Amino acid sequence: MAYYYPEPSRTFSEYLLVPGYTSEDCRPDNVSLKAPMVRFKKGEEPALSLNVPMVSAIMQAVSGEKMAIALAKEGGVAFIFGSQSIESEAAMVSRAKAYKAGFVASDSNLKPDSTLADVLALLKITGHSTMAVTDSGTPNGKLLGLVTSRDYRVSRMSHDVKVTEFMTPVDRLITAPKNTTLKQANDIIWEHKLNALPIVGINTLDYEERVPALVEAGADILCIDSSEGFTVWQKRTLEFIRSKYGNSVKIGAGNVVDREGFLFLAEAGADFIKVGIGGGSICITREQKGIGRGQATALIEVAAARDEYFEKTGIYVPICSDGGIVLDYHMTLALAMGADFLMLGRYFARFDESPTNKLNINGTYVKEYWGEGSNRARNWQRYDLGGTSDLSFEEGVDSYVVYAGSLQDNVAKSLYKVKSTMCNCGVMSIPDLQENAKITLVSSTSIVEGGYHDVTLRSTNTTV
Ligand code: IMP
């Protein structure tokens, strides 16, 4: 007889967090969102961590080199999509990597008496939003400060104001001495959330050719991009990587939705494991094949398996909640339920940095967003189960998402909400949240109570 789960599977929207005690120190500025990215032994530090627990989905419509650079600057990482030729994927990795691959003299320099108008003019010419203020206005002059787009508001400030009034002065900058090596500089950059870390997707078919090309191109970590990870193909891919590179190449695997799937991939050597089947916004896997599991339930079970595995072996294997995040509070919930970090597709597809077209449809700006299993992406390898490279039905749709502006502004806003919620819960780090969050299921009537109700809106501009 088939196995029947005693409980239905549930989604994030069916849960809420209940506040804990908020102390004086518990302020958003004091909250750390640092998260481990790869497996580590008890008492040791992971070889790679994230400064913010966000990674972008391994999708054509989401993660190109622009996303890799923009997201890395915020402390997260992008997984460059694998559904392209080995040559073009390796070239994309090299270009994103080149962004931080060497020291270059600044081509955007200002003098102390330069004004905001000069900043805007220079920005137009170079496209670089970070500018050095030096005593002579040349790259070799004495550094006095830096101006970035965060330092000014074009609409609110006079364009005559001098850069010295709004730049970040040198004594508040993180700098390195002249003889710093590239490796040391990169460590400093990474520690302070300024890194560009290209991360790439691979599949379980052509890995013997693709992985060496990507490693050669400088990829820092790989992930097997597949809709379903509890398979012999993933085990073989992991074995290939371990036999060729030992532990020097880091690799994630997935996706799984239960304890058994997690333990299988943890034993097979995955550095992190992705959780989620059928919950993605563009995903129709559940309708097409009837497989999957509510994202919250899947996550709760896999997080328990990860803790059990850690308890038993002393090895912590981080888990990534992949797909189905719609509202910002879903991020906090996913972390509270045990996710170490989150993979988001729709969320990032809405920003300037995603590689798709921005269109105006009936007066609304939208960006294109299509699933890897859609006819448009034709990433059949992601759905392959038998070592062939063709498939006869789609598992994703081709769609639009409402354009939302720049990644930097949106990520800052979302993470501020996450941090504020964590303060409501009385916690200041992700492990603290996972340990101490109080989570309640909500009835369908209290979900109605959660939105505005019994009032008529005066303005439709309220944003969630
Ligand atoms: P979202 O953040 O809800 O948009 O979900 C993104 C996730 O959906 C990705 O990281 C993939 O795991 C998954 N995904 C991407 N393309 C497809 C598809 O075509 N069908 C099913 N799932 C997909």
Shape: globular
Low-confidence stretches: 101-105, 192-196
- Order of strands across the main sheet: 5-6-11-12-13-14-16-17
Instruction: Report on the biggest sheet.
Output: 8 strands, parallel, barrel
Number of helices: 15
**Compounds present?**
inosinic acid
What portion of residues belong to β-strands?
15-25%
Beginning-to-end CA distance, first to last residue: 45 Å
Question: Structural class, from helix and strand content?
Answer: alpha/beta
Q: Mean pLDDT, rounded to whole units? A: 88
Quickly describe the structure.
By secondary structure, this protein is α/β, with parallel strands linked by helices. The protein has helices at 65-74, 86-98, 116-126, 163-166, 182-191, 207-217, 232-245, 259-268, 285-289, 295-313, 328-336, 346-349, 407-424, 430-436, 444-450; strands at 15-18, 35-36, 40-41, 49-50, 54-56, 77-80, 109-110, 131-134, 143-147, 168-169, 198-202, 221-224, 250-256, 272-275, 315-316, 319-322, 341-344, 358-361, 364-370, 398-402, 438-441. The strands form six sheets. An eight-stranded parallel β-barrel has the order 5-6-11-12-13-14-16-17, surrounded by seven helices. A four-stranded mixed β-sheet has the order 7-8-9-10.
Structure notes:
The relative contact order is 0.17. Helix 2 packs parallel to helix 6 (207-217) and helix 11 packs across helix 13 (407-424). A hairpin with an 8-residue loop joins strand 8 and strand 9 (143-147). The protein is 33% helix and 17% strand. It has 464 residues and is an alpha/beta fold. The protein contains 15 helices and 21 strands. An 8-stranded parallel beta barrel has the order 5-6-11-12-13-14-16-17, surrounded by 7 helices. Inosinic acid (IMP) is lined by residues 57, 59, 227, 280-283, 285, 322-325, 343-347, 371-374, 395-396.
